[in-house]
Specification:
With 490 residues, this protein is an alpha/beta fold. The chain is built from 11 helices and 16 strands.
Length: 490
């Protein structure tokens, strides 16, 4: 048996054991699937932008359900948004105050923090996660490097996890699959830091989407007789752009456009596989399927945040306004659109309320029940203020049509501490938790005559081209005060 065949069998075996805790029961509550893409821009799907890569599976969700035009990730980068989705909390309430988690850092969800998957478990749901984790392991620095994986997805409420520990662009020692707290294919007696261990365990980047898709489909099949919650976090379309060759036939894979379009097609194919599996088991009617992204697109790799200003990492709309599609035939009318502002952290309150649970100590400002919108009860719905957060930790607040940015800068750029830097040390507090950590962003000085902050009216100026702070100083003052009170937990 050659190495490639052996490697495929190891991965397939891990997938078959993933999600296999089947318990027969009649599902009285809806199944819930959240598919979160990585770096998929608002303008990357053809249901959002004419000229985008044709995405028939995502288009079918828009056709059979609801398309949101004003949905936002909690951060303009990935780790913080993932924290917010799973906890319902703004990401800056964690110890990570800017950028993303380094591969050395402990679990970002601190001890005692209640979570969405834990609440779903309490409601009798089978909870599974497939795909990109990137929220850390253990309770101190370098737990992953020591092979201590138990404090991770399973510790915060997932019954089963099959996926990748960090990002698609990780170092070779992190380019692996995990099943719960085990590295798939790692020979006994070896580590990822020796040549034999790494060779045996390292995943194929071009095969990753297919392997994750099989795991997601298998989870649905194994749990079709009881309510389930599946968080499916794809590695598409984060760089490196590595679509399987079958998705770039007839295109130039050497170009960003050809490769990236194939990567988007591969993501859409994975969405289609989920829909097909639900249809096979007659689960479509009472299953909530959501497709969204962790932040905006990246132009240099081919991504689009059109028509908004900015892109991933930035505080402008293109950094955090994301695609958000939902179908739930039992409740949501087909071919509907929602223009209300919402946050991905709102899913926590929405789902827990739906199943008769709550997340302990969840601040009221951080998560709001979206069910009225799903039922078409848009009249009178008011999300209230929304806070945005950039790669460098710059804040903005949105209230109605107004958006205040608490800086002159767009919010992305260089940090003094690098992700691999040995100075990136998380310090534990004596009474539990961790001291706030910053990668020390480098913010450029203001230019002559440049205002210290920014104020935009998104109704009149959706592309944020005209800073109105000089004309509306009182509105800026009000929004800054509101921002500070929410940050303080008031």
């Amino acid at each position: 048996m050659d190495f490639f065949t052996k490697r495929c069998l190891l991965v397939f075996g891990a997938i078959l054991s993933f999600g296999s805790t089947l318990q027969a029961a009649t599902p009285e509550k809806p199944n819930i699937i959240v598919i979160m893409a990585d770096d998929l821009g608002y303008g990357d799907l053809s249901c959002y932008r004419k000229g985008a890569t044709f995405t028939p599976a995502c288009n079918s969700i828009a056709k059979n359900g609801m398309l949101f035009t004003d949905a936002h990730s909690n951060s303009a980068v990935c780790t913080p948004t993932r924290y917010s989705l799973l906890t319902g909390r703004y990401n800056w309430r964690s110890y990570l105050q800017n950028w993303v988690l380094s591969e050395r850092m402990p679990l970002l969800i601190e001890e005692g923090t209640d979570t969405l998957p834990a609440a779903m478990q309490r409601a009798g749901y089978e909870t599974g996660m497939v795909g990109k984790w990137h929220l850390g392991f253990g309770r101190d620095m370098d737990a992953y490097q020591r092979g201590e994986f138990a404090i991770g997805p399973n510790a915060i409420g997932f019954d089963d996890f099959f996926g990748v520990p960090f990002s698609h662009n990780s170092t070779p020692e992190m380019e692996v699959f995990m099943h719960n707290d085990t590295i798939v294919g790692l020979p006994e007696g070896h580590t990822l830091w020796d040549p034999i261990g790494l060779t045996q365990a390292r995943r194929s980047l071009e095969a990753t989407a297919g392997d994750l898709s099989r795991a997601a489909v298998h989870f649905i099949s194994q749990n079709k007789e009881k309510p389930f919650f599946l968080y499916y976090a794809t590695t598409n379309v984060h760089f490196p752009v590595t679509p399987h060759p079958m998705f770039v036939l007839g295109q130039d894979r050497a170009t960003f456009e050809g490769g990236y379009r194939g990567f988007v097609k591969e993501f859409d194919w994975a969405v289609g596989q989920v829909l097909n599996e639900l249809e096979t088991h007659n689960l479509l009617e009472n299953t909530i399927v959501i497709v969204t992204s962790d932040n905006g697109g990246v132009a240099k790799f081919g991504g689009s945040s059109e028509p908004w200003r900015g892109e991933k990492a930035q505080i402008y709309e293109g950094g955090h306004r994301v695609p958000f599609l939902i179908q739930w035939p039992a409740v949501i009318e087909p071919k509907t659109t929602c223009d209300h502002p919402v946050l991905l952290s709102d899913l926590a309150e929405t789902f827990t309320q739906l199943v008769g649970q709550e997340i302990a100590d969840l601040p009221e400002s951080d998560s709001m029940d979206m069910m009225p919108l799903f039922r078409g009860e848009h009249e009178g719905f008011d999300r209230g203020p929304i806070i945005h957060h950039s790669q460098q930790g710059i804040f903005a607040i949105r209230d109605g049509d107004w958006k205040y940015i608490d800086s002159h800068w767009q919010g992305s750029g260089r940090h003094e501490i690098g992700l691999k830097d040995r100075d990136a040390i998380i310090v534990a507090k004596p009474d539990g938790g961790y001291e706030d950590f910053s990668f020390r962003p480098v913010i450029p000085a203001r230019k002559d005559g440049e205002a210290a902050a920014q104020l935009y009216n998104l109704k009149d100026d959706p592309k944020e081209t005209m800073n109105l702070i000089a004309r509306n100083p009182q509105k800026a003052k009000e929004l800054k005060s509101l921002l500070e009170s929410i940050k303080a937990g008031e």
